[in-house]
Amino acid sequence: MSGRIYVRAPDALDELILALPALRRLSEREAGEGGEGGGAGDGGSRVDIWCPLSLTPVLEMAGLPAEIIPLPRQPAWKTARWLRGSGYSGAYLFSRAPAAALAVRLAGIPRRGRAAAYRAGKGEHRSVEYLRIVDPEWSEGRPAPARLEVPIRAREDFRRLVTGRFERPAVAIVPGSRAPARRWPEGRFTALAGLLSGDVGTVVAFGGPGDEVLAARVAAGGGTRGVDLGGRTSPTVFAAGLSECDVAVANDNGALQLAAAVGAPGVGIFGPRSPGRFGPPVAGIQALWHSMLPCAPCGREGCRRFGRGSILSEARDECTQLIAVEAVARAVREQLEEARATSDV
């Protein structure tokens, strides 16, 4: 080993999955496994990826040739104290958090690459932006999409959770979002569950911490075919559940990226961000987005519009309000038909 490389992973699930191709390229290059001669991989540096504690199980499913180190929530000075004297010869920052950059500076680690400032408008796909942290001269377009290997134990745990209540075809609905402007209205998710309950065997509602009530209401919308798993799954069991379902429906968030990474077809509901820049770079995800609004894509996590909208009577959250329940249901049915044509669903 010629040294150790410090890598700070992104702080959100969707960003982590979009960064995986770059994290793999960096890990393989530095470890000397994937480089094409020359570069940092010659000496076989060890790569340590420091990842927020809640995202560590997801990163471990990627099987990267790197050490995954859980990073608890703590002040930058405390992280710097951990890093100081650890022998890191360079740092790559995939997190845009100011505290991540501050910790590296306080620890005295030379910075080799850092995530660019957030830009909401037109530009390269996010996965390419992350690749440019590792390779500024990257010119090969979008990388191969990330793939995650779901542990067998997680699949078994999911099947135990839904024993006697899971019948295919199954649709996963993930109604939550950390950004209010990217959240399709709760009532529409509930109505969607009701519409789909006549077409499928099971409607599974997922939700993380804080989304338990939301998931319960959506599951109730599915009637006897609804299954509520809000707050009942670990990250790996959540991934297993998405992979076991025939279609996943989610906002523009980490759940949609996770579904794509485990190979589940999906329908993504996009609002303030463009699916061309932030959507999963796979063919199996159908994105619904109204790009004709003058404010789109604004990229904001909270809508700042008020008064009369461009199309609707209200401007607030117009981009997501324009997406009708029937349009999402139609997209799900199209995905199910395609699945039936290629499998035993």
Automatic annotation (TrEMBL):
<dbReference type="Pfam" id="PF01075">
    <property type="entry name" value="Glyco_transf_9"/>
</dbReference>
<protein>
    <submittedName>
        <fullName>Glycosyltransferase family 9 protein</fullName>
    </submittedName>
</protein>
<dbReference type="InterPro" id="IPR051199">
    <property type="entry name" value="LPS_LOS_Heptosyltrfase"/>
</dbReference>
<dbReference type="GO" id="GO:0008713">
    <property type="term" value="F:ADP-heptose-lipopolysaccharide heptosyltransferase activity"/>
</dbReference>
<dbReference type="GO" id="GO:0005829">
    <property type="term" value="C:cytosol"/>
</dbReference>
<dbReference type="GO" id="GO:0009244">
    <property type="term" value="P:lipopolysaccharide core region biosynthetic process"/>
</dbReference>
<keyword id="KW-0328">Glycosyltransferase</keyword>
<dbReference type="InterPro" id="IPR002201">
    <property type="entry name" value="Glyco_trans_9"/>
</dbReference>
<keyword id="KW-0808">Transferase</keyword>
